[in-house]
User: Which sequence fits this backbone?
């Protein structure tokens, strides 16, 4: 079974621009979570989507948003980019069972550099 | 809010040795799940092992095993017969019973020397 895929793998943007990252979960997985990884803050939870609905959101400004499509693919968008948004953005998928008990499997990440 | 602490920023051992990575966490929940993930230089996050809090038996996966001490809120990872390919960042992660995301520790950089 194919793993989680993320596109693009690398991205360079300038301050003030916006960016959209894409994530395709493992076949059959209905839940997609997004994480930001930076050297200073480590790994931080952004949000989780299940059946096209955002189930939970981490402590990030409204510039960070996402959505999920009917085929469970997810996109996250960052508007008005800031230098501090430079990070590795990781997507993880899981079955989406009730109770949050299932394991999350991660994609290779998208490395975003904001200049 | 949950917190996860990994007190060893970096560890280095010789190939074939056994190494233990420490992790402590703080939570008021009774039903939760704990994970160890490995992140090699490729940055791909790979699941190493998972432990359900309601299970008393420690999880094992081949050369990897955990020592789960629920009362002490401790969750250490033991790697036996370490191999060069085990060189990576290791993250301890907590997940509560709801829809919250994973809470990660800061990570331990493990270096296996030949």
Assistant:
């Amino acid at each position: 079974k194919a793993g989680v895929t993320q596109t693009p793998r690398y991205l360079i943007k300038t301050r003030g621009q916006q960016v959209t990252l894409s994530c395709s979960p493992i076949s059959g997985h209905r839940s997609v979570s997004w994480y930001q990884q930076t050297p200073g803050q480590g790994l931080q939870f952004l949000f989780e989507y299940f059946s096209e609905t955002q189930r939970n959101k981490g402590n990030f400004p409204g510039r960070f948003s996402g959505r999920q499509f009917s085929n469970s693919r997810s996109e996250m968008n960052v508007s008005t980019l800031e230098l501090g948004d430079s990070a590795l953005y990781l997507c993880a998928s899981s079955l989406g069972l009730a109770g949050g008990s299932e394991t999350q499997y991660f994609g290779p990440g998208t490395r975003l550099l904001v200049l | 809010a949950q917190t996860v602490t990994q007190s060893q920023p970096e560890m280095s051992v010789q190939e074939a040795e056994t190494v233990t990575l420490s992790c402590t966490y703080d939570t008021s929940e009774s039903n939760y799940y704990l994970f160890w993930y490995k992140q090699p230089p490729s940055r791909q996050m790979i699941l190493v092992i998972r432990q359900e809090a309601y299970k008393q038996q420690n999880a094992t996966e081949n050369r990897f095993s955990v020592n789960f001490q629920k009362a002490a809120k401790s969750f250490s990872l033991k790697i036996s017969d370490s191999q060069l390919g085990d060189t990576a960042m290791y993250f301890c992660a907590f997940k509560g019973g709801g829809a919250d995301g994973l809470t990660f520790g800061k990570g331990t950089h493990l270096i296996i020397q030949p």
Notes: Chain B touches chain A at residues 31, 33, 35, 37, 42-47, 50, 52, 91, 95-107 (CB under 8 Å). Chain B is about 0% helix and 55% strand. Chain B has a mean pLDDT of 94. The CA atoms of residues 3 and 26 of chain B lie 5 Å apart.
